[in-house]
Amino acid sequence: MNTRFFLIAAALFLFSIGNAKGEKSAAVPPSPITLKDTGINKIKDYAGDWIAYWMHYNRITSKLNTKFILTHNGEWYVSIDDAPPEKKGSWRLVDEFLLLKPLGAADKNEMLAKLIDKDHFLLHSETQPNMAVVYRRAASVKPVEPSRIQGRWRFTEQNPVTRKKRQSPFMIEFDASGCYSVKKLNSAFQIPEGAEKGTYTINGDFITLKNSCKTPGIWSSMKFLFSFGNLVLDSRNSYIYGEKE
Predict the structure, then answer these.
(1) Of 3, 143, 1, the residue nearest 82 (C-alpha)
(2) Burial of 161 (0-12, 13-18, 19+ CB in 10 A)
(3) Is the dihedral of CA 154, 224, 136, 48 positive or negative?
(4) What pLDDT, in 10s, does the model give residues 105-149?
């Protein structure tokens, strides 16, 4: 991931302590958060490699090129595009939270992540509540079996604000030989030249389409994330998912 993520991450969420109760004359300043570690979570259970996914309105919409490495001795590393890991700071656990402390930062500037379960933790933006990054334990991300991809898929675009849905005027069919083709459901729909067929590859939970399309846009470089049985178009700003017929 690029520097843009770390600008977002710098503001990532510190859990709200709620509104201060009002007095007759003025509001009472909020009290600082006090975290007490009861030892319910162990460092050994969260040390390891973690892969980042972008979330928009509580939907995973994109796989990011950033990996966190949390070591058993409390060091925090980041690898971007599988480059050699770079030390970013330290980490620790406090009950249901994972705290990430950048190099040279004070304790009060730790980033607070919410532990979802043993395989997921969440960094949420307080200033942009509809955006978040969820980290999955790398070992829990299983390669997609080709048989789960093969077949016909119909796609739906869901508006993140209104939740209204719009179905695609086409289907994509994946065959066992590693090829795909687009089937029109509406004769008026125009498929960009060169995008009507091509090949696909599976890399872990990621499916990449290749074709001869020269038209700028998603058709020339279409990628999908296999998530909870759906194919999710790899996109930061939209939620388009496919369901197998």
Answers:
(1) 1
(2) exposed
(3) positive
(4) 988 889 999 999 999 999 987 778 788 999 999 999 999 999 999
Q: Rounded to the nearest 10 degrees, how much is the dihedral formed by the CA atoms of 203, 62, 177, 156?
A: 160
Dist CA 56 CA 53 (whole Å): 10
* Residue predicted with more confidence, 220 or 33: 220
For 154, the token pair is 């119909």
The tens digit of pLDDT for each residue in 41-72 reads 899 999 999 999 999 888 899 999 999 999 99
Q: Which residues contact 121 (CB under 8 A, 6 or more apart)?
A: 46, 50, 98, 113, 114, 115, 134, 135
DSSP 183-209: EESSTTPPPPTT-SEEEEEEETTEEEE
Residue 195 has a CB neighbour count (10 Å cut-off) of 19
Tell me how far the alpha carbon of residue 206 is from its chain's centroid.
Answer: 12
**Which amino acid, one-letter code, is at 188?**
A
Would the pTM of this model clear 0.70, i.e. be above it?
Answer: yes
Q: At residue 92, what is the residue type?
A: R
Q: What are phi and psi of 181, to 5 degrees?
A: -145, 150
